[in-house]
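Materials and Methods. Structural model of 3-dehydroquinate dehydratase. The 151-residue sequence of 3-dehydroquinate dehydratase from Derxia gummosa DSM 723 was retrieved and submitted for structure prediction as follows.
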Amino acid sequence: MKKILVLNGPNLNLLGTREPAQYGYETLADVEQLCRDEAAKHGFEADCRQSNYEGQLIEWIHEAGREIKAGSMVGVVFNPGAYTHTSIALHDAIKGADAIVIELHISNVHARESFRHHSYISPVARGIVVGFGVKGYGLAIEALARLYPAQ
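The predicted structure was written out as tokens:
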């Protein structure tokens, strides 16, 4: 069964307790279950991972690029958290690995502080899902499934 990698960046392990007015009360475990359920509806397996470390996220993106090329993965749903606005290294990893990425943000970053309005990830993402809460993960998985149907 082909996989969809769901990557969550820094501080997303705090979902459910961190700024619930902004991010909601669902936990990372809830999000991961939503992703597994949505992926299964489309004939895929969701591989969910979270790290607070930029280097680890880069390694996983490199791995995803290899798996996409090998045909065992269709793409990545990636919530880079605050690295969205700071990490040229993640931009370069996505571009260099030729990974198919849907960038995702739980909140509408464009309605927040001005420093959140710029993304280093968007120029190398296949698409972007922003501001739909954790339901956005399901939308991003559906987008990948529509773009790359299970074979």
